[in-house]
Amino acid sequence: MTDGQSKNINFINPTELSPPPGYSHVAEIRGGRIVYIAGQVALDRQGKLVGKGDFEAQTDQVFRNLTAALAAVGCTPGNIAKMTIFMRDANQLQSFRKARDRFLGGLTPPASTLVEVSRLALEDFLIEIEAVAVAN
């Protein structure tokens, strides 16, 4: 666990499983309130798309939206136990990881599932991320 990581979440990578590249296999919740954050897309506060056709710009906006959603319940990225990432093009994985690492700022990556999808709610959306957090 890194400074800023919730003390209510214990991230585990069992030695019987392959080492994960940028996520944790297990997130054990030890207490606190569970917070579910709906899938966030690259819309700004006025509802305008940020980064049409630009995966990295959209991903950064999604993480800004997650930060705002977390802050609304007194949380930070360190409170995230699980993320589910929906991407239109899994070939953008390295760009996603760079943006995710900026968002996490050195924290242990949470349990994660990444799914490539043919389409999201609107044609121009390239990524959507939902999260489960644990608040103190």
Summarize the structure.
Helix content is about 20%, strand content about 30%. It has helices at about 55-70, 95-105; strands at about 10, 25-30, 35-40, 80-85, 110-115, 125-135.
- Please tell me the overall pLDDT: 95
Helix content: 10-25%
Order of helices and strands: EEEHEHEE
| Proportion of residues in β-strands | 25-35%
Biggest beta-sheet profile: 4 strands, mixed
Radius of gyration: 15 Å
Count the strands? 6
Strand order of the largest sheet: 3-6-4-5
What does the model show?
- The protein has helices at residues 55-71, 93-104, and strands at 9-12, 26-29, 33-40, 80-87, 111-116, 127-135.
- The radius of gyration is 15 Å and the shape is globular.
- Strand 4 (80-87), helix 2 and strand 5 (111-116) form a beta-alpha-beta unit.
- The chain is an alpha+beta fold.
Detail the topology: elements first, then pairings.
Elements: E1 9-12, E2 26-29, E3 33-40, H1 55-71, E4 80-87, H2 93-104, E5 111-116, E6 127-135
Helix pairs in contact: 1-2
Q: Characteristics of this structure?
A:
globular; 4-stranded mixed sheet; alpha+beta; two-stranded antiparallel sheet; 136 residues
